[in-house]
Write a structure and sequence with these properties.
Elements (H helix, E strand, L loop, with lengths): L5 H10 L16 E4 L20 E3 L2 E5 L2 E5 L1 E4 L7 E3 L2 E4 L4 E4 L2 E3 L22 E4 L2 E5 L13 E2 L17 E2 L11 H6 L9 H12 L5 H4 L7 E2 L16 H18 L4 H24 L6 H23 L22
Parallel strand pairs: 5-14, 7-13, 11-12
Antiparallel strand pairs: 1-8, 2-5, 3-4, 6-9, 7-8, 10-11
Helix pairs in contact: 5-6, 5-7, 6-7
Length: about 350
């Protein structure tokens, strides 16, 4: 599929509910979404462990919808065929707006704006692994792989030109404050290879990310709680962004509960259950801090995060099960009592 079908891509944008402006299409280019302001910085997070042999890492990125920028968590996915690698999408300044260039599968990793997405995507190429015959070999210097289960691994720390590495977590190329990288001669050559569009699992992952209110920058201030997940369809088992505080997570989950109750997706019993568990977590946090001079130890922080992950999972299940509650009707203002007739 040397030239991707623009109609299919525009339909994809419509299916995701995106307000898009389609820019001129270059050879082998992907979906174009035009936005007048830059996306937030990339969050720092821990990569979840690889779920099994053959999965390849897709780094998280900021997508755009009618409600603004929203975070699409990093995820392990299965490639469409043996031998292909993922080139991440990226935002680039187009002279009058920021334009999103969709990621794609191909024999080599092409230009992705010089953005350092981490975990092998350092701005140029990919250092997280390589195909060896019909199997993918993981470079454990950059990827989180259980070597007791997956044995086709190696360790090689590749040195990348520091001028192309995104040390500030900038999420876009060009423009004011953007990465100044341009395609290398080799990356320009890779542009002419056969490219394969994102898989249906990847598309569903984007849709699921868009459906989660907490992923939007206007709700999380550019610091998404759901920074990465292990595989598509597991949005409720997200890995929180590094630096996200316990209070931020609690506030985010309270917001999700409120949204679920208002929309009718959560009923009163489910809400009471979740809020009771949140109150218990808050008490545990307060007690731990009181015993440690106002701070949480790393172990205590991990325990609280685990409990919050469990609550997050319950909220997701409650919002998608059959138990619902009718939306509350607006309250009628009481009419003043009429004076008796004389």
């Amino acid at each position: 599929m040397k030239s991707m079908n623009l109609i299919r891509k525009f339909a994809l944008g419509a299916a995701l509910g995106l307000a898009v402006a389609v820019a001129p299409v270059a050879a082998n280019a992907g979906v174009f979404i035009s936005v007048g302001f830059a996306p937030p910085a990339l969050p720092v997070y821990t990569q979840p462990i690889c779920p099994g042999d053959g999965y390849l890492w897709n780094p998280g990125y900021w997508a755009y919808g009618p409600e603004g920028y929203y975070w699409v968590p990093g995820v392990w996915v299965q490639p469409p065929s043996v031998g292909v690698l993922w080139t991440p999408g990226y935002w680039g300044w187009g002279g009058s707006a920021f334009i999103f260039h969709e990621g794609y599968w191909g024999p080599h990793v092409g230009f992705y704006g010089g953005i350092s997405y981490g975990f092998g995507f350092g701005g140029v190429g990919f250092s997280g692994g390589e195909w060896r015959g019909g199997r993918f070999a993981y470079n454990t210097a950059y990827t989180n792989v259980n070597t007791t289960v997956i044995h086709n691994t190696y360790i090689n720390r590749t040195t990348i030109n520091n001028t192309t590495i995104n040390n500030s977590h900038t999420s876009f190329n060009g423009g004011n404050g953007g990465i100044s990288a341009r395609p290398t001669a080799q990356e320009a050559q890779f542009e002419h290879e056969n490219h394969v569009a994102p898989t249906s699992a990847q598309m569903s992952h984007v849709q699921a990310a868009h459906a989660e209110p907490g992923n939007f920058a206007k709700a999380n201030g550019g610091h998404p709680q759901m920074a990465a997940i292990q595989r598509p369809g597991a949005m409720n088992t997200a890995v929180p962004a590094r630096g996200a505080t316990v209070n931020q997570r609690a506030a985010n989950q309270q917001q999700r509960v409120g949204q679920g109750l208002q929309s009718g997706q959560m009923n009163a019993r489910e809400t009471r259950n979740v809020e009771g568990r949140e109150a218990s977590i808050n008490r545990q946090t307060a007690n731990d801090r009181a015993a440690n001079g106002g701070r949480l130890t790393p172990q205590e922080h991990q325990q609280v995060n685990q409990r919050q992950n469990n609550v997050s999972r319950s909220i997701n299940q409650d919002k998608h099960n059959a138990a619902t509650q009718p939306k509350a009707a607006p309250r009628q203002q009481a009419r003043p009592a009429e004076k008796p007739h004389r």
